[in-house]
Amino acid sequence: MLFFLAWVSFLLHMVSPEQAELELLAEFVSEIKSFQQLDRDARRFGIDSLIHTNPRRGIAARLETLTGISKDSLTFVPIRCEAEAATSDDRMNHPFVLISTIVEKCLARDEHFFEVVETPTAADVVASSFVNSPEYQTHPLVLACKGSGITVVPISLYSDGIKVCCDTHPDSLYAIYINFIHRGVNECARKESKHVLTVYRKSEATPETLQDIWAVILWDLQALAKGCKPVSGEVWKPLHQQACGPPLNGAWGLWHRVCLMQVRGDWSYYCEA
């Protein structure tokens, strides 16, 4: 038994502190471990502060761990940031999981995932589901598509930050998620229904960082509202000048539109973003 424990300890320490930190942060963001557990395990790997020195590589690895989406499926966009995190021209090549990519992966798993069903509502209930609510029913895109056979898929965006360091080096990791809220409250409450768009460290972020992150999200949404894929060269153009790509997932995009209908977060995120 002692030999076995010694061998396990040896194997654990073969992992570099940098790689160990990424795995621990992924477990923390996905709520597998508490901060106390994270801090204890970090010390096993000789990590004192849980501060990573290569943010670009770190975030990409966390996204892959959290979403199952590999680096090949990520879209990298240069965004402004603190000088220490920049790779060139005060920007870092930041990874995003585009909403359009998430939609295609959901469809690959279940071709009926985006069916929007309106259920009967009792007389004393305002709405039995989001798609029965006034927010959905009176939305301009829903009204424009009504009677045409086009389905509008509503999404909710949510952001939250978590502490990822010891007190001597305070820092936070912010994750931006979406939920497909036509799926119902019970399903959206599950952790596996959170789809990560991107992750950023507060210590690397400036007001311009958040502006650029929103610009990327809006560029993606602009195309999705037309049932299309976004085109990479259009991201920094004004929204009304952006051209869209081909229909998303082939014929599916001809009959579906995806629209952001909720933005949620804590007071800190509201003030910053």
Secondary structure: elements and pairs:
Layout: H1 2-14, H2 17-29, H3 35-44, H4 55-67, E1 75-80, E2 91-96, H5 99-109, H6 134-137, H7 140-145, E3 151-163, E4 172-180, H8 185-188, E5 195-201, H9 207-224, E6 228-230, E7 244-247, E8 256-265, H10 267-272
Parallel strand pairs: 3-8
Antiparallel strand pairs: 1-2, 3-4, 4-5, 6-7
Helix pairs in contact: 2-3, 2-4
Overview of the molecule:
By secondary structure, this protein is an alpha+beta fold. The chain folds into two domains: 1-48, no CATH class; 55-272, no CATH class. Helix content is 36%, strand content 21%. The chain is built from ten helices and eight strands. The protein has helices at 2-14, 17-29, 35-44, 55-67, 99-109, 134-137, 140-145, 185-188, 207-224, 267-272; strands at residues 75-80, 91-96, 151-163, 172-180, 195-201, 228-230, 244-247, 256-265. It has a four-stranded mixed sheet with strand order 5-4-3-8. Strands 1-2 form a two-stranded antiparallel ribbon. The longest helix has 18 residues, at 207-224. The radius of gyration is 21 Å and the shape is globular. The relative contact order is 0.13. Residues 1-16 and 51-56 have low confidence and may be disordered.
What is the total number of structural domains?
Answer: 2
Note poorly predicted spans. 1-16, 51-56
Shape: globular
Largest sheet: 4 strands, mixed
**Based on DSSP secondary structure assignment, what is the total number of beta strands?**
8
The DSSP helix count reads 10
- Measure the end-to-end span: 53 Å
Strand arrangement, major sheet: 5-4-3-8
Content-based structural category: alpha+beta
Helix percent reads: 25-40%
Integer-rounded radius of gyration: 21 Å
Determine the strand fraction and express it as a percent band: 15-25%
Question: What number is the mean pLDDT?
Answer: 78
Oligomer: single chain
